[in-house]
Structure formats: structure tokens, C-alpha cells
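A reminder from the course coordinator: this example appears on the midterm review sheet, so study it carefully.

Given structure:
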């Protein structure tokens, strides 16, 4: 399922976009300021960012620039109340792929989203660390001739770990990104899934280990 991140400080608009896109079969998260949006976007787990220009803490241009500086190639659709050519140029120069002026038509928004997702295609279809790859289309962990299929939650946790590589990911971050802020999941859930993944990595002869550092979370190391 394609994952979309909406970064928009008008909560009513953000939530109505979320509802609309979920109805079209996308998995959608919405955040309401630029700083939070940048943190989420840099996880690299989204297939598309929908980004408003005028926001508190950090405007959309700056979010796009910082996300691009992290070599994040996720397509960015910028939303703006300004239709001036200079603003569009500024948006494209900061890393946006397409520009939509508010108020926009729902059909136009969906056409833009589909075009950006099509253009992206299978740009990244696997993540690799050590001698092991995670196939994003099949949800399998692969090491040489051996492979093992991951459950949806295992896949999400592994994807985040492989994107963070040797940077620590806190339990709170994993809980929020994989289970969502509103879920009843607790930190113990993270530990259980890390246990499942360690077993599966061992079963295919992977040289990756998932290391835990007290109070800092988890990261990957090559044994």
C-alpha cells in the first residue's frame, strides 16, 4: 500500500485530505507543522509528501530543501495559496516536483498524485544492509539463496531499521511510526517484534544484527 505524508498546518484541510486519500486506498499520516513534517519525511518510509508552503516553525520551502539535502528522493507535491510564478519557481527550486494552488479541485489533486507516483515507479524497490536485502514489493528479507516473508508489522519495523542503518531508532519512534500515536501498543510490542526479526535474520544466515542500546533504542550492525 502506498504511504502518503501530509504536512499542512490547516488541520481541517489536512484531515479532510487524509480522509479523501484513505478512501482511495492510500495509507496516510498527517502532521501539522514543518518541523514535525521534516522529521517524519526524513524517515524515508513515504511514497509521496504533500507539503503546504505557509506553516509555523518551518515553511514548506525549507522543509523541502532540508529533506532533499538528506538525499531523500520522495516526490513532493507542494500546496500553496500563492499562484505567482516566482513562488512556483521557488518551490521547484527547493525540491518540489509539482505545485498545486489552493483552492484546488479534488480530481486535479488525485491526477497529480497518480502522476507523481507513476513517475517514481520502482525507483527504490529494495533496501540493502550487510549481505541482506529487504524487497519492498514482496515484503521478503533475502540473503543469498534464502529468503523469509515478513508480516506487515515486521516489515514496517525492518524497513525503518534498514533506512536508519547504524543510527539509533528509539522505541517511541518505532511505536509512533509503526503502530501509530493512537494505538494501545506499548514498548513491549517493539521488543517482541525485534525478537521475531532477529530469529528471521538468523534463519536466512544474515550478517545483520539488531543491537539495542539502553534508552537510545535500536540500530543495525554487520557482524
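Designed residues:
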Amino acid at each position: 500500500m502506498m504511504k502518503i505524508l501530509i504536512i499542512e498546518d490547516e488541520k481541517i484541510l489536512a484531515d479532510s485530505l487524509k480522509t479523501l486519500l484513505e478512501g482511495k486506498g492510500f495509507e496516510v499520516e498527517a502532521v501539522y507543522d514543518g518541523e514535525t513534517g521534516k522529521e517524519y519525511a526524513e524517515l524515508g518510509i513515504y511514497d509521496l509528501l504533500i507539503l503546504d508552503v505557509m506553516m509555523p516553525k518551518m515553511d514548506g520551502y525549507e522543509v523541502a530543501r532540508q529533506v532533499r539535502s538528506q538525499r531523500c528522493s520522495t516526490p513532493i507535491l507542494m500546496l500553496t495559496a500563492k499562484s505567482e510564478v516566482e513562488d512556483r519557481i521557488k518551490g521547484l527550486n527547493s525540491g518540489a516536483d509539482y505545485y498545486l494552488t489552493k483552492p484546488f479541485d479534488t480530481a486535479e489533486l488525485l491526477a497529480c498524485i497518480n502522476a507523481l507516483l507513476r513517475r517514481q515507479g520502482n525507483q527504490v524497490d529494495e533496501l540493502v544492509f550487510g549481505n541482506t536485502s529487504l524487497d519492498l514489493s514482496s515484503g521478503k528479507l533475502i540473503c543469498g539463496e534464502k529468503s523469509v516473508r515478513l508480516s506487515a508489522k515486521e516489515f514496517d519495523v525492518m524497513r525503518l531499521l534498514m533506512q536508519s542503518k547504524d543510527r539509533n531508532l528509539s522505541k517511541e519512534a518505532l511505536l509512533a511510526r509503526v503502530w501509530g500515536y493512537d494505538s494501545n501498543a506499548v514498548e513491549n510490542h517493539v521488543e517482541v517484534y525485534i525478537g521475531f526479526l532477529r530469529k528471521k535474520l538468523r534463519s536466512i544466515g544474515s550478517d545483520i544484527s539488531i543491537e539495542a542500546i539502553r534508552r537510545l533504542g535500536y540500530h543495525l550492525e554487520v557482524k
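The longest helix spans residues 187-203. The mean pLDDT is 87.
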